[in-house]
Amino acid sequence: MKRWILLPLLWLATGALADDQTAVRRAVEEGRLRPLTEIIALVQARYPGRVVDVDLERRGGGRYVYEIEILDEHRRKHEIKVDGASGTVLESEAEGVDASHFHALPVLLDRVLARHPGHVIDAEFEHGLYRIEVVRADGTHVQASVDPVDGSIVREDERNAHFGRMLPMARVLEALLLRYPGTVLEGELERGSDGDYYYEFEIQSQDEETVTLHVDALSGEVLREEED
Length: 228
Known about the structure:
Layout: E1 2-6, H1 17-29, H2 36-46, E2 50-58, E3 64-71, E4 77-83, E5 89-94, H3 105-115, E6 118-126, E7 129-136, E8 141-146, E9 153-157, H4 169-179, E10 183-191, E11 197-204, E12 210-216, E13 222-227
Antiparallel strand pairs: 1-2, 2-3, 3-4, 4-5, 6-7, 7-8, 8-9, 10-11, 11-12, 12-13
């Protein structure tokens, strides 16, 4: 992963950084990266204040993410991550949370459900946004990220549209017990921080040693193994 530290409106042009600037300039010309001035204007429209730091991070697949720090009028620092191509706010986090201007959560839930009728199965405040997950009538899931102040839906992910293609727990265990023979003490379906589902099993061997396994719910691949 490469990272460039930028002044808000000025590129630093020293040494090896020149090559990085060339790559960034090419990405802007090809439309894979929006200019910094545009990104700052979009961010400051939602988060008024003074820009104190900007980083540009290149991730896997050539994806760019701007990381912007803004100091608001109350001298709270906001750290905001923005997709470099679309300008979509991916994450926002403030030092200290002032909830006095938040919409009530039921109002935000109704707003999401108006666009995605179904049942809310999870609502969590994280990085300055509410993450609200809805399971729809067809069994697919959508996670909406909602700004608690203006009530806008800033991002929607259909991460779990493959929900119906999960391997049944019984079939996963059949294959698993061939590698880890013993007695299953516990088995449950969990959701990771990335929105993907996995099975978590506790299996006790004949020697009374217990192993905890995280298994991908789509492929049956063992993701993690922990011995107690």
